[in-house]
Amino acid sequence: MDRKAVALLESMVGNHGFIDGNKRTAWLVVEILIERSGYFPNIPDDEPIDDIVVGVADGSISFEDLSVWFKERVKTVE
């Protein structure tokens, strides 16, 4: 699941499908992917999600680092 989430996030952020709101939309779509796949994002409310998404946009966060980030935070629904 983590690699799918990263691929989707990178693709949506990098391809600029909209005039504005690409990063926000990308994050929402990733959350939907996670939840519809039977997982849930176990991310604290004070986690700086916007910093993560901006890091994807500016290339400062690698695919592998982001994959580890998701792996640590995405849990299965029990």
* Strand order across the largest sheet: 1-2
**What proportion strand?**
5-15%
Write down the secondary-structure element order: HHEHHE
The helix tally amounts to 4
- The general outline is globular
Q: Kindly name the structural category.
A: mainly alpha
Query: How many individual domains?
Result: 1
**Poorly predicted sequence stretches spanning 5 or more consecutive residues:** none
| Mean residue pLDDT | 91
Kindly describe this structure.
- With 78 residues, this protein is mostly helical.
- The protein has a single domain, classed as Fic/DOC protein, Fido domain (Four Helix Bundle (Hemerythrin (Met), subunit A), Up-down Bundle), CATH 1.20.120.1870.
- 64% of the residues lie in helices and 8% in strands.
- It contains 4 helices and 2 strands.
- It has helices spanning 2-15, 22-36, 49-58, 63-73, and strands at 39-41, 74-76.
- A two-stranded antiparallel ribbon has the order 1-2.
- Helix 1 crosses helix 4 (63-73).
- The longest helix has 15 residues, at 22-36.
- The chain starts with a helix and ends with a strand.
- The model has no long low-confidence stretch (mean pLDDT 91).
